[in-house]
Structures are given as structure tokens and as C-alpha cells.
Write a structure and sequence with these properties.
By secondary structure, the protein is mainly alpha-helical. It has a single domain (about 1-200), classed as Vanadium-containing Chloroperoxidase, domain 1 (Up-down Bundle), CATH 1.20.144. Helix content is about 75%, strand content about 5%. The chain has helices spanning about 1-25, 30-40, 45-60, 65-90, 95-100, 125-140, 145-160, 165-200; strands at about 90-95, 105-110. The protein has a two-stranded antiparallel ribbon. Helix 2 crosses helix 7 (about 145-160), helix 4 (about 65-90) crosses helix 8 and helix 6 crosses helix 8 (about 165-200). The longest helix has about 40 residues, at about 165-200.
């Protein structure tokens, strides 16, 4: 039974590697490099700036909905970033571009904490999906655009040879989970605040 599961896992991994390499064959073309540069909008610096900027602008304009959207985007992004960083430090996997350019592929536990060895999971995918999901929850009217932008970032990570398909799927799942957890925490926070307010009024 164990051998069967291990064999299936190896076959799935081999298929994942083959698909990743196949999809990244054009990684050095001008078009894909341009897409890769654009996908940096899904990096943590830009998403942090977008989230904090939304929060600050909402507070400045005294717009509770916008401020809460920024707060939720920030919380979701930070949670996704912390999760993907933790997983990257536990799991090491060389990136597709390392395999394609140097003919080297390895995976395992607690490997070198450096970029070429941190293919799993995709941080861009985790954070872009988390922030897009948070924005879409706050403003359903932009959910389609936000989702499309996040999926664009996710897809480009494979085309540029930065991640295998399973890496971006794992990253997207981290993003969705992080946003859901941040949402539940916000609900709990609001309930505690409401309860405290009622208790304060009753004590007057």
C-alpha cells in the first residue's frame, strides 16, 4: 500500500515537472519577460502598498467600508505571506528555470533558504489571491476584475519558469485560506467590540 502511494506521488510529481517545463519553454522571450515584469504587481511590496494605501485613504476620507476593505486586504496578505514563508523554509524545491538552465532538480525538507530553492509554494500566487479575494469580498462589484488579475499573476509564474503548476496551486490555496481566516477573525473582532459596547451601555 505504501509503495503504491509513493509510486503515485512520484508519477504526479514527474507529470508536474514535465508540464511546468513545457509551459515555460518561452520563458526567455520578450513577451513572457514583459508579462513577468507586469506580474511583479503581485509581489509583497506592491500588495502591501496597495493594502495600506487603501486603508489610509479610507481613514482619511472617513469611509468605513473602504477602510475596512484595506484592513482586510492587509490582514489577508500578511497572513498569506507568513504562511508561504513558513512553508518555504520547511520544504525546498528547485525552480523550473534551474532545471531548464542548469539541468538540476531536487526537493526535500529544510534545504537552502535561497531563492532558486524556494519554488514551493508560490508567494506571488498566495498573496495576490489573498488580497484579491479580500478586495472582492468588500466590493463584490470588482470581484471579477480582481480575480482575473490574481489569476493572471498566478499563470505568469509558470510561464516565466519561476514555479511548477503545483506550486501555484498550493500558493492560491494558501491565499484563499488566509483570506477566509482573516475574515473569520474580523467577524470575531466585531462581535467582541459589539458585546463590549452593549456591556458599556448597560453599565451606565
Amino acid at each position: 500500500m505504501t509503495d503504491g502511494v509513493s509510486g503515485l506521488a512520484r508519477r504526479l510529481e514527474a507529470g508536474d515537472v514535465r508540464l511546468g517545463v513545457s509551459l515555460a519553454r518561452a520563458k526567455d522571450t520578450r513577451r513572457v519577460q514583459a508579462l513577468a515584469a507586469a506580474s511583479e504587481a503581485g509581489g509583497w511590496r506592491w500588495l502591501l502598498a496597495l493594502s495600506t494605501g487603501t486603508l489610509a485613504y479610507g481613514l482619511l476620507r472617513r469611509n468605513p467600508r473602504l477602510a475596512e476593505a484595506g484592513r482586510h486586504m492587509l490582514a489577508s496578505g500578511v497572513l498569506a505571506a507568513a504562511t508561504k514563508t513558513t512553508v518555504k523554509r520547511i520544504v525546498h524545491r528547485t525552480r523550473p528555470n534551474v532545471l531548464m538552465d542548469e539541468g538540476f532538480y531536487e526537493k526535500g525538507w529544510f534545504g537552502p533558504n535561497v531563492g532558486p530553492w524556494q519554488s514551493f509554494p508560490s508567494g506571488h500566487s498566495a498573496m495576490s489571491v489573498a488580497v484579491a479575494s479580500a478586495a472582492g469580498r468588500a466590493y463584490p462589484e470588482i470581484r471579477g476584475v480582481a480575480t482575473a488579475a490574481a489569476l493572471g499573476v498566478v499563470g505568469v509564474q509558470v510561464l516565466r519558469g519561476a514555479h511548477f503548476p503545483s506550486d501555484v496551486v498550493a500558493g492560491a490555496l494558501i491565499g484563499l485560506t488566509s483570506e477566509a481566516v482573516a475574515h473569520e477573525l474580523a467577524i470575531g473582532r466585531d462581535r467582541i467590540a459589539a458585546c463590549a459596547a452593549r456591556t458599556g451601555e448597560a453599565g451606565r
